[in-house]
Amino acid sequence: MKNLKACKNCHLLTDNDVCPRCSLPTSKRWSGYVIIRDPDHSQIAKKMNITTPGSYALKVR
Ligand SMILES: [Zn+2]
Questions:
Q1: For 5-60, CATH number?
Q2: Core-most of 1, 51, 57, 60, by most CB within 10 Å?
Q3: What spacing in Å lies between the alpha carbon of 8 and ligand 1's midpoint?
Q4: Band of the pLDDT at 1, cuts 50, 70, 90?
Q5: How does pLDDT run across 48-60, given as a tens digit for each residue?
Q6: Degrees (nearest 5) of the Cα angle 42, 16, 23?
Q7: How far is the CA of 37 from the centre of ligand 1 (A)?
Q8: pTM for this prediction
């Protein structure tokens, strides 16, 4: 997970410099992550407004 970057907008973890989902720059400065498999039934996903399964950073600076 070390080399991954997180999108500042949707918190999606990716190894791209730009988020594949929102086309916004990603940041190396993130901490904690959560894997969302079923956004419809996940409290965390609702809290973070996540609607698509994937790996997400909890905090992005
Ligand atoms: Zn994004």
A1: 2.20.28.90
A2: 57
A3: 7
A4: low
A5: 999 999 999 999 9
A6: 75
A7: 17
A8: 0.87
